[in-house]
Design brief:
The structure is a single chain. This protein is mainly alpha-helical. The chain has 4 domains: about 45 residues; about 40 residues; about 55 residues; about 80 residues, no CATH class. It has 17 helices and 4 strands.
Length: about 270
């Protein structure tokens, strides 16, 4: 091989790795597409599909930047727009590099119709005559399923428990009979909730659903219930996102909860 051919080899390799087609490379070098193929073989440049070369050219050296942007935005399309990349390239990189990316991709839940305290109290009172006394939250949940109130879904047990600090307290506010309390309620902070969810996540080997978390906490003292945990966020997914950095050892990015919020307290709901 002549020394004159070396610069062309460097240039050919550079264009090939940037994801250009043989036709595009030929136009850049002033040679035919067929001659480009012959040179690739002569220089023993490994054949790589064009889609793979374009992906590698797009993300090479930007892996950390893409992952960090995704942890902030939690949306492949938004990351692609912000960084000037193709969405499919972002999605592939994130799927390979960011643990539990599927959780972070879940759409943020928009708040549903909000009921006032009086709405919730009225709903509990309306259900009470149809159910055994004291009214249990499971019985109420079954009774409310599929019903609507003023064109909105009937408020469920979780709404009442989060609003009033537990099922027993909700019944007291509605002036309904309750079971005798089992002692003073346990007080938890947001930090306690996140620590419990993170512990369950690590032990189970995956992020826990509400049911899996509730089964995991059975028999463990001092662990907040799902109802207590959900008083600190709009949804269970929001709590998982808050626990995410602690499970995966991140110091920045997704799920960092506001320290002001962590000073809030919640009491474990009694049933």
């Amino acid at each position: 091989m002549t020394s004159e051919a070396d610069p062309r080899r460097v240039r050919l390799t550079e264009l090939y790795e940037r994801g250009l087609s043989c036709r595009e490379i030929g136009r850049r070098l002033g040679i035919s597409r067929e001659w480009v193929r012959l040179l690739l073989a002569r220089y023993e440049i490994p054949a790589v599909p064009i889609s793979e070369r374009r992906y590698l050219a797009a993300v090479r050296g930007r892996e950390a930047e893409i992952a960090e942007a995704f942890l902030r935005l939690r949306n492949d399309a938004e990351v692609a727009g912000q960084l000037g990349l193709r969405e499919r390239h972002v999605r592939r990189l994130v799927s390979a590099e960011v643990p539990d990316a599927a959780l972070l991709r879940r759409p943020r839940r928009t708040p549903g119709p909000r009921y006032s305290d009086q709405d919730l109290i009225a709903a509990l009172r309306e259900a009470a005559p149809s159910l055994a006394s004291p009214m249990g939250h499971d019985a109420y949940r079954r009774w409310a399923r599929g019903r609507d109130r003023d064109g909105r879904p009937w408020p469920g047990t979780q709404v009442a428990m989060r609003r009033f600090g537990g099922w027993r307290r909700a019944l007291v506010r509605a002036g309904l009979p309750t079971n005798r309390g089992g002692g003073p309620p346990t007080t938890y902070s947001l930090d306690d909730v996140i620590a419990a969810i993170a512990a369950a996540w690590r032990e189970l080997g995956r992020y826990p659903s509400v049911a899996r978390y509730d089964a995991w906490r059975a028999g463990r003292a001092g662990v907040p219930s799902p109802a207590t945990a959900r008083r600190f966020a709009a949804s269970w997914d929001d709590l998982l996102v808050k626990a995410y950095p602690f499970v995966h050892g991140l110091s920045v990015g997704v799920g960092e909860h506001d320290r002001a919020d962590s000073r809030a307290r919640a009491t474990s709901p009694a049933t």
